[in-house]
Please model this.
Amino acid sequence: MKRFTHSLLFLLAFFTSEVIYGQSFAADGQVIGWAAVNPGDPFLAQGGLRYIPQFTFSYPVGKLSMEGEVSADIWGSTSLFNTDSINLDKNLSLYRAWIKLSGEQFEVRAGLQKINFGSASMIRPLMWFDRLDPKDPLQLTTGVYGLLGRYYFLNNANIWLWLLYGNNATKGLEIYPTKKNSLEYGGRAQLPLPIGEMAFTYHHRQAEPDDVLPASMAIGGPCPENRYGFDTKVDLGVGLWFEGALIRQESDILPYNNATLLNAGADYTFDLGNGINVMAEGLFYLQGNKPFGSDMKVVFSGISVNYPLTIIHSISAIVFADFSNKNLYRFINWNMTFDRWSFYLMGFWNPETYRLPGFEQGNSIFSGAGVQAMAVFNY
Model:
C-alpha cells in the first residue's frame, strides 16, 4: 500500500504540474462485473466487481515525445462455498505507472509496466514477466517495476535492454520468488527474416528458493538464475512458430536446477463462412540436473478456434490437453461487443484439480464444470 500511495502521488503531481500545458491528456478506464457458478462438490459461486481507471498523457519535448500512464486495479469479490461459507476478498494496487521518452528510433520507459514478448500465444516458454491468460478476453495481467529501453534499426531489427527492481513476488512461470532488493537484468534482440522474424532473449536474477521450499530442503540463501530464450515466426500461408527457453539455477541442492521449455505452433484462417481461425500449440516441459535433461517431463498441447458470427457476435473455444496427467481442459466463450459495452458468457469443463502451466493451481472456480458471465463497460 505504501508503494502504491507514493507512486500515485508522484505521478499525479507530475501530471498536474506539467501535462496541463502539453498536447493531450486523457482519462478513461474499464468497469468489469462477473459472476461464476460451479455446481460440483463442493458447490462454489463467485461474484465480483473490478474497476481500472486510467490516465494518460503525451506532449513533445523538442524533437522527442514524452508519454505516461497511471492506472489502478481496484476489485472486490465474494465467494460462496457449499452454501454455508462466504469469503470476501478485495484489492487496491497500481496497475500501471510509467513514463516513456521516445524518438524516431528509440524509446525508454520507466516504472510499473507490462513487458512481454515471444511468438507463442497459449502456452508460452517466454512468459517471463507477465501472466496473460489465453482464455481471458480482456488480456489483463500484472506489470513489473523496471527500466526498459528499445532501439529500432532501419532494417526492422531491434534490441531491448531492461533493468528490474522491486518485483519480489513470483511472476510469469517462476516457481521461486526473486531475492528482495536485488536487481534483475536482461535483453532481447529481434532480427527480421525474409518471411518473418527471429529473436534471442536473456535474463538474470537471484532466485530465493528458501521462501518456498520446506525448512528441511532449504539451500541456505539465493541462487543465481539465468534464462536463455529463442523464438521465431514465419508466414508460409500458414503461420508457423517455435519458441524455447532454457532456465538454469546455479545450485547443487535443488531437486532439478535446469528447466527446458519447447513450444511449436501454427495458425490458419479457413475461408468458410466469415472465416474460421484455428490455432494449435504443443509444449514440452523438461526438468533435469543437466541442461536439456529430462528427469521429469510434461507434455501439453492447446488448440483454439475463433469464429465471428456477425459484427457484434463471435464464438471461441480452447481445449488444452495434459498428456502427462491424461487431463483435458475445455472452455467455450460467446462474446457480444458494442461501442462501450462487451458481454461474455463462458462455459468450462475441467479436471477437479486445476493445473494449467503458469496459472493458479489446485482447486479454483474453474475446477470441474461450470459457467461464468462477465460484463465490461469502457469509457
Observations:
- The first helix runs from residue 2 to 18.
- The chain has two domains: 1-104, 114-378.
- The longest strand covers residues 44-61.
- Residues 12-20 have pLDDT under 50 and may be disordered.
